[in-house]
Specification:
two-stranded antiparallel sheet, single chain, THDP-binding, magnesium ion binding, five-stranded parallel beta sheet, 7 strands, thiamine pyrophosphate, globular, PdhA/BkdA, Rossmann fold, pyruvate, alpha/beta
């Protein structure tokens, strides 16, 4: 007896018997990125929300500039700037409720700060002082993820667990276009769709995975189209339109909270600065391309909308900029203070229960430190 002859064996159905499990039409993204600013839809936007978005964008731009300057002063080892992407960062934080979780990538420091994380603590990882630098549970912000896309399966797991427990929790996971080329991205989307987990995936398509342009990563019509292959809706949005990003993410979070399952959102934006302070972006892109995107700057777009509608004047602009300067000055002052570091902290919070290897390493380091202390005391004795 062959395998195919065994009772219960899979028997291929003829082609006419095949039916799609899901109608793909409702899952397809719009042919053009969704926009609000500069359209008739802007008149329906909440003025208070627009002002909040504007203030946060201006502060976020100054935060990026200050953090970049700190790398040049030796206060940070590295900083992946999100200049030009502030609309995605701020909108992601504001679209969530207090009980929800944000899962950022390494470039999403600003999103963590907009969510409430202390700005100095958010930079601690990039300073090399701590594994994370902040308590993830305090503001429901997972550790900044340096490995590409590894935070996505974690977001799915948390969202699925919350759903099983009956908790009113949605997870929003952020990733760059480069992260969509990682296996973790595909595994996360597949699990999320099969489990109908309450999770939203936000892809910030800023054009480059370090020096690799999007065209060398995928041949898909858009990254949002990839959602259809997993059975979830795909949304395409202008990532520099803060109002549009907030609207799309808010809708996706609401859909997930209501039991509708996951959504993949692709925000079309641009990384104005280099990949990090260690990158020379002039080697793979021209200044004309960067300048064209500066004309589509998220702050300018929102500022133009607010001023044309009489919701923002010169005094309001000056106040937002002064708020940003005050914020940057406080960050600069605190970052210029040398932290008091305990080498034994290397072993704290690695595992809930330390492994034998970790305990051995900790004991070895403690012995070396005590020996050094004894030598110093003897030299001064």
């Amino acid at each position: 007896m062959t395998v195919m002859e065994q009772r219960g064996a899979y028997q291929p159905a003829p082609p006419p018997a095949w039916q799609p499990r899901t109608d793909p039409a409702p899952l397809l993204p719009d042919p053009e990125p969704h926009r609000v600013l500069g359209t008739e839809a802007a008149a329906k936007a909440d003025p208070a929300l627009l002002r909040t978005l504007y203030t946060q964008l201006v502060r976020g731009r100054r935060y990026n500039a200050q953090a970049t300057a700190l790398t040049k002063q030796g206060r940070l080892a590295v900083y992946p700037s999100s200049t030009g992407q502030e609309a995605c960062e701020v909108a992601a934080a504001l679209a969530l409720k207090e009980q929800d979780w944000l899962f950022p990538s390494y470039r999403d420091t600003l999103a963590a700060v907009a969510r409430g994380v202390d700005p100095v603590e958010a930079l601690t990882l990039l300073r090399g002082d701590w594994h994370t630098g902040y308590d993830p549970y305090e503001h429901r912000v997972a550790p900044l993820s340096t490995p590409l896309a590894t935070q996505l399966p974690h977001a799915v797991g948390l969202a699925h667990a919350a759903r099983l427990k009956g908790d009113d929790v949605v997870a929003l996971a952020m990733v760059g276009d480069g992260g969509t080329s990682e296996g973790d991205f595909h595994e996360a989307l597949n699990f999320a769709a099969v489990w109908q987990a309450p999770v939203v995936f936000l892809v910030q398509n800023n054009g480059f995975a370090i020096s690799v342009p999007l065209a060398k990563q995928t041949a898909a019509p858009s990254l949002a189209h990839k959602a259809v292959g997993y059975g979830m809706p795909g949304r395409l949005v202008d990532g520099n339109d803060a109002a549009a990003v907030h609207e799309v993410l808010t809708d996706a979070v609401r859909h997930a909270r209501a039991g509708g399952g996951p959504t993949l959102v692709e925000a079309i934006t641009y990384r104005v600065d280099a990949h990090t302070n260690a990158d020379d972006a002039t080697r793979y892109r021209g200044s004309a391309e960067v300048d064209a995107w500066r004309d589509h700057d998220p702050i300018l777009l929102l500022e133009r909308e607010l001023t044309e509608r009489g919701l923002l004047d010169e005094d309001g602009i000056a106040a937002a900029r002064q708020d940003a300067e005050t914020f940057a000055a406080a960050l600069r002052e605190r970052m210029n203070q040398d932290p008091v570091l305990d080498p034994m902290d290397l072993f704290a919070h690695v595992y809930a229960e330390p492994t034998p290897q970790l305990l051995e390493q900790r004991a070895q380091l403690r012995a070396e430190l005590e020996a050094e202390q004894t030598d110093r005391e003897g030299a001064h004795g």
